[in-house]
Amino acid sequence: MKHKETKCIMNEGMPTHKNPFEKGRLIITFMVQFPPDRWLVAAKLSQLEKLLPAREDVMVPDHAEAHVLEQYDAAAEQQRAQQHREAYDSDDEGGIHGQRVQCASH
User: Fold this and answer.
1) Within-domain flag for 97
2) pLDDT tens, 63-91?
């Protein structure tokens, strides 16, 4: 993970408009803080591990779900959303009933 890297998890975000059972993307921006001298910390890691208590094993609950983090491009998403809005707006130009057609009379 990199500092300020953004990822997403599909179908785990907010419910979509007018369809509460369909979920959007859960977008996550990671804020990672590294020590200023990473090489120094790496060189001292074995010494630190000897001084600190042993690491505890991570227990994953049986009911936990696994998800895949996918790349997220905010600029591409904004462009896609804009195109969606434009397509939606162009459908509304004809009004609710669209074009009126007059019946032929005899």
Assistant:
1) no
2) 999 999 999 988 888 898 888 888 777 76
Split into its structural domains, the chain has a count of 1
In a domain, 16, yes or no: yes
Domain range enclosing 29: 1-49+67-74
Q: What is the pTM of this model?
A: 0.54
Longest dimension (CA), the chain: 100
How far apart, in whole angstroms, are the C-alpha atoms of residue 25 and residue 8? 6
